[in-house]
């Protein structure tokens, strides 16, 4: 089982969380001008990388707050967490974005 560290509640079992998919998907500003293909890409097309991936998670059975996690999809290792108010906090305690 994956152990996920909620930025507010601390480490909890994966079963308490709901994955919201890929993080940092920007909603198009002028949706009226999008083609059907562009709108479909925004709604459905997501990266599926082998390696480092940024995801949104909801602590559904806890504080019900959203946060982002940077996770390696091969090893399942979570490298850091980020709230929408503060940048990535890596697991070794260093703030700031990592590659
Ligand atoms: Zn929480």
TrEMBL record:
One GO molecular-function entry? sarcosine oxidase activity
Q: What class of enzyme is it?
A: oxidoreductase
| Claim: Heme is one of the keywords in the record | no
Enzyme Commission identifier(s): 1.5.3.1
Annotated Pfam families: SoxD (PF04267)
Indicate yes or no for the key word tRNA processing: no
Q: What keywords are annotated for this sequence in UniProt? A: Oxidoreductase
In its UniProt entry, what is this protein called?
Answer: Sarcosine oxidase subunit delta
Q: Which organism is it from?
A: Paraburkholderia gardini
What's the encoding gene here?
Answer: soxD
């Amino acid at each position: 089982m994956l152990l996920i560290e909620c930025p507010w509640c601390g480490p909890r079992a994966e079963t308490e969380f709901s994955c919201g998919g890929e993080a940092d998907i920007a909603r198009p500003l002028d949706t009226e001008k999008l083609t059907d293909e562009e709108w479909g890409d925004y709604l459905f097309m997501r990266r599926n990388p082998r390696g480092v991936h940024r995801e949104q998670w909801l602590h559904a059975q806890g504080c019900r707050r959203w946060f982002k996690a940077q996770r390696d999809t091969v090893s399942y290792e979570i490298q850091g967490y980020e709230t929408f108010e503060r940048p990535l906090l890596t697991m070794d305690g260093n703030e700031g974005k990592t590659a």
